[in-house]
């Protein structure tokens, strides 16, 4: 189905004008992607676009989104990309296409807790009994909370956004003193500060905008959970789409323990005159005992005592909700912030306990192991999210998924299936209630991976064991880093492995600076890594996906093992088992797919520009020897492969000498 010439021509012309105005150069992959996005929006077909780093994919979906005649939502996984879009890419594009008669209005929309709440700041924070307290918390928090309050008042006075991302540095606990969740909010009509409300003003701006930039979690709450958070829209572009399943799962995951129930009971005592609050407190005690007697891990069958305790909590919470007054002092109960927030905590307890007690086949329920500071918690998460995504998002909207990592094993089918699209629907001619057509497009990369990068698999090493890294792996790590003279990003499967490797490198290569995640905040570590080429940085998951270090500061990416999910991961093991029961291959569909995504993301840390050169070294021989190794390697950028450590060390020495000379 070719797009009408006029549509493709309009996209090409606007893209060319934007690229020229921004001082860029024409990129074939960017043009192909922009045309495909324009066609998908026009035909109302879903689209998966794999676009390598450096393609210019933001512009490739923003241009056809501006040309689309209805509102388009752009959803990202990370704050970094959201900021890039809102503060750089979209404003520059709007300036470049000025005078063409297009609706270039745009807004950013986040969850309510991302904005300071003027009611909470001016009227106070409910204590455990629900009483509003305007006093500043004692101790170390006091100065920071006062600073946040003053900042929020300045934002209100200067018509600022009141967004958390622009607030003075703070912790989660400090931010909770100046913000509320959607459950705790009084609503603009009942709040005395509704006209000034930062969150309401953001929503009003979004209502008037053609483009709305938001995040995966808010999109999931709006589209899948059915809680209206985003103004009506026609289509959505999901960037960083490889993260979507995890973010939707996270948004649909609930937690509960006895302290949550006890706190809800405490806050209810001020408003409930009967015994209902005390009954809820008793139910909290029962839940506490049942959790102590239960074993941590996933529950294939919910223990009878724990089930009974959850039912008791559910029923006590329902009774407490019924006992809340409908009116207080002649006012609607929702006008009392303390009452509404206390009632909201009971509603949360009721909803979560009800879901956990039901323990349906669509959910996975488990208990995490507690410690001195973090007590055990019950968790419930959806077994799969592709069904809700298909029924509540894909069936209603046109969706464009894009990322540098969407083809796994050389094909789109694995990722498409996880998102709710069926392989048999690919390139279908007609959209019906039963069939959702989709296309997959790989626009390639501007990088010549075969010349810029080497994929080295240390085939001679023993397979990784349960006890972590051994002497052979440590020797390999030291020899590779020594050859690279620093310039190394180490991606490890656990914090313990990263710290152990860092300690060995510090002892054996003391002339280099070796940093481990946790030594300082990530931005500080990244800055030091970029500024000093003789630095080694070791870390875990957030470095696999969130670090962008172009240039010769990073010429070696070390990966200690294939990043399969832990065998005791409750959700992943349940999904793998469900795939097996359905007649599929659970290991390949769940564990190998998870590993392939992470491995591709980690490998992608190496080549970030057309001039970057380097080595990705995987210390897990299974990538070369196991049957699934081919699937994993087919998911990676097409670098030049080798298993010869001598060749790799020589290449690293030449690169470090060249970088040093430069």
TrEMBL record:
Belongs to the helicase family. DinG subfamily. SUPFAM superfamilies: P-loop containing nucleoside triphosphate hydrolases (SSF52540). Residues 161-172 have a biased composition (Basic and acidic residues). It catalyses: ATP + H2O = ADP + phosphate + H(+). Its EC number is 5.6.2.3. Residues 16-287 form the Helicase ATP-binding domain. This is ATP-dependent helicase DinG. Keywords: ATP-binding, Helicase, Hydrolase, Nucleotide-binding. It is an enzyme of class 5 (isomerase). Its cofactor is [4Fe-4S] cluster. InterPro entries: ATP-dep_Helicase_C (IPR006555), DEAD/DEAH_box_helicase_dom (IPR011545), DinG/Rad3-like (IPR045028), Helic_SF1/SF2_ATP-bd_DinG/Rad3 (IPR014013), Helicase_ATP-bd (IPR014001), P-loop_NTPase (IPR027417). Residues 153-172 are annotated as: Disordered. One of its GO terms (molecular function) is hydrolase activity, acting on acid anhydrides, in phosphorus-containing anhydrides. The keyword Repressor does not apply. Gene3D superfamilies: P-loop containing nucleotide triphosphate hydrolases. It comes from Nocardioides terrae. One of its GO terms (biological process) is nucleobase-containing compound metabolic process.
